[in-house]
Protein: Efflux RND transporter periplasmic adaptor subunit
Amino acid sequence: MDRFRRLWSAAKPYRTPALVLLLLVAAAAWFGPGLLLGPQVPVRTVTQRDFVQSVVASGHVEAPHRVSIGTQITGTVRRVPVAEGQVVAAGQVLIELESAELRAAAAQADVAVAQAQARLRQVAEVQAPVAEQALRQAQVNLDNARAQLRRNADLFRQGFIGQAALDDLQKAVDLAQAQLHSAQKQVETARSGGSDHAIAVTALQQARASADAAHSRLRYATIEAPVAGTLIDRSVEAGDVVQPGKALMVLSPAGETELVVQIDEKNIHLLALGQQARASADAYPESRFDARLVYINPGVDAQRGSVEVKLAVAEPPAYLRQDMTVSVDIQVAARPAAVLVPTDAVHDVDAAAPWVLRVEEGRARRRPVRLGLRSGGLSEVLDGLRAGDLVVPAAEARIRDGSRLRPLAAGRAGGMSP
Structure:
C-alpha cells in the first residue's frame, strides 16, 4: 500500500492529462456509434402471406321478430305457470285468468242453444204435421159444404127451399174455403222455408253465435303461446288485474337467430349481401361461430354515422341469448400472398400519396407506396415494397428522409388479422 502511494505521488504531474484522455476514450466508445452510425430505431419487417380484410363491429343478438303476449279481456290473473327465460312450446299455457263467471255465461249460452234446437224440432215434428192435418180437414169441410150447396140449389130451383136457406149454405162454403186457405198458410209457415221454420232456424243460429262468443271469452281466460320460443320478458303476477292493450310477456320465437350490428358509414362500400363473418359473444369471447350478412339498411343514422346491418346465424350456439352483446368480423375481401406492412409505418395513409421510410444501407429513405386492403393494423402493399424490407414506424419523428439509423427489429408485419 505504501508503495502504491509513493508511485501515485510520483505521477502527480501527469494525473490530470491521463484522466482527461481516459474520459475522451470512454466518451468516444459510448457516443461514437450513435454519432457516426445514427441512433438505434425499432423497425418493422414487411412480410408476405394470405390476407383477409375484415370490417369489425359490435351489436346484439335479436330474433327476426318478437311476439308481445297480452289479454283480450279484462280479468284477474289466477295463475302464471311459466318464468322469464323459460323455453315454451306452441300452445303451452302462459297465463290463466279467473273464469268462473265466464264458464257460467258459456253454460247459459249452451242452454239457449238447446232451447232453440228444441223449438226447431217442435216446428218440424209437431207444428208442421198438425198444420197438414188441419189442411186435410179443411179440404174435407169445403168439399162437404160445396156438395150441400149443389144439392140445395136443385131444391131451390124446384121451389122446395127458400133463398135464405140457400144463402146460408153459400156462407158455409165461403167459411170452409177461408178455413182451407188459413190451413194452407199454416202448412206453408211450418214447412222448411216457411216463416215459422225460418224464425226457429234464425233463433238457433243466434243462440249458437252467442254460445260461440261466450266460449271464445272463456278461451280468452287461458292465454297460450302462439309459437314455440323463449320468454324474454314477463311483467305479470297472480292477482294482477289485466286489461287489453298491455303487453304482459314478450316471446322470442324459436328459429333463425340474427345479429344486429352498426357499421361505420365509411365502410358501406365494402359490404355486400352474402358475405361471411365470424362472431363471438362478449360473455364467451373464446367461442366463435359463423354468420352471414343478409340485410343492409338503406338509410344512414345521421347522429351516429353508422348503418345497421343484420347477419343470420344458421347454427347458433346453445349459450346465445336474446340481446347478448356480440362482436362481429365481416370478411369483405381476401388476397393470397399479399405483401403486408404495418399501417403504423405508413405516412399519410388516408391521403392520395402515402409513403414510408425504408431502411437502405443504414439510412432512412422516403419511398412512395400504393396500398390495397387494410385490416387489423396491416395494409396490403400493391407497389413500393417487397417482403423482407425494413420500415420505420411513423411515430419515430426524429427519423427523416436520409437520416442514419441502426435498425432494431421490433416486430414483423405477420400478425394475424382479425
